[in-house]
Amino acid sequence: MDGVRHLSASEQLITYINRAKENQNLSPDFLLIVLGPTASGKTKLAVRLAEHLNGEVISADSRQVYKGLDIGTGKDLAEYGNIPYHLIDIRDPGAAYSANLFRQDFNLAYQAIRKKCKQAILCGGSGSYIQAILQDQPYSNIPANSDFHSDMASRDLNSLISYLRSLEVPENFSIDFSNKKRVIRAIEIAEFLQHNQLPEIKVKTIKEYLIIGLQPDREQRRQAIDSRLIQRLNEGLIEEVQHLLSKGLSHDQIEWFGLEYKYVSYYLRGTLSRGQFIEKLRTEIHRFAKRQMTYFRKMEKDGICIHWFNPASLFQMS
C-alpha cells in the first residue's frame, strides 16, 4: 500500500534478534553468534549485524588464527571495513592451537569488547570452538604440543588410526577418524591421560547467547563453494602456498592446514595434475561443508539452540 515503509531484511533480522533477547530474557552482555557451513556468508552477515548493533567481531575459525593463511582460509579482511575484528592473525604457521587456547583468547577478546559497551559477535564455522565456549569440554583443556603435532604430521592417517586404537581412549571422547589433525589430537589426549588427570577448567563458559545459523539449501551451497574456489584460485591461492613454502614451511606442515593447502601442496609436488587438484579439492570442500552441518546438528542435540535462516534472503540486507 502506498505510504507504507517495508522493513529491509536487515531491519527484520534485528527485530527478530531483539524479540529473541526479550523472550530469553538475555542481559545486555549476551553473546551473538553467527555460524554456518563454509561459503554461506557468515563474515558478511556478522559485519552487517555489527554495523547495526555497534559491535565487534570475534572469529571462530581454527585456521584464520594463523598469519599468512589468507586466501585459503577466506579471511576476507576487506569485508570488515571499519568493524574491528579479533582472533585473526594471532599465531605463526606451525604453532599448535587448540580449543582450550581458543577459549582463553576468546575470553580476553570478549571482555575487551564488553568493557567498551559494544556488542560481541562470534562468527565462524569451527563448531568445536564455538561449543567449547558454550559448554564445558574437559578434554580441550589438555595442552597441545606443537613439536608432538609436527612429528606426528609426517605419518599417514592409517598408521595414526592403528596407533590410536592401541591406546585407552575415554568412552565419551568423540573422534573424527577422517580428519588427520583430529586423530593426532586424540592421540595426544590419550597419551596425556595415561599419566595425568584431566586439568581443571579455568575459563567460564558463556551462559547467555543467541545463535543465528546460516543454512543454504544444497544447490545454493554447492554453487557458492564452486564459485568461491575459482575466485580463490584467481586471487592467488597457489601463489600463497608457494610463499609459505619459501618462508620455510614444509609440505607436511602445509598439509596440516587441510583442504585448500593440502591439495595445493599435492599439486605443487606433482601428485595431482591441475585438473585433478581442482576437482578433488572441490569434492572435499563439499564434504567438509556436510561435516560442518553434521557437527552443528550435534550441537543442537547437546542442547544448544540455533535459529536457522536461509542466507539468500538475508543478503538482501541494506
Structure description:
The protein is an alpha/beta fold and 318 residues long. It is built from 13 helices and six strands. It has helices at 9-24, 42-53, 99-115, 127-134, 146-153, 157-165, 180-195, 218-235, 237-246, 251-256, 259-268, 274-301, 311-314; strands at residues 31-35, 55-59, 85-86, 119-124, 209-214, 307-309. Strands 3-2-4-1-5-6 form a six-stranded parallel sheet, sandwiched between helices. Helix 8 packs across helix 12 (274-301). It starts with 8 loop residues before the first helix and ends with a helix.
* Spatial ordering of strands, largest sheet: 3-2-4-1-5-6
* Proportion of strand residues: 5-15%
Q: In DSSP terms, counting alpha (H) and pi (I) runs of 4 or more, how many helices?
A: 13
| Shape, per Cα inertia axes | globular
Outline the low-pLDDT stretches. Answer: 1-6
Number of distinct beta strands? 6
- The helix/strand order is HEHEEHEHHHHEHHHHHEH
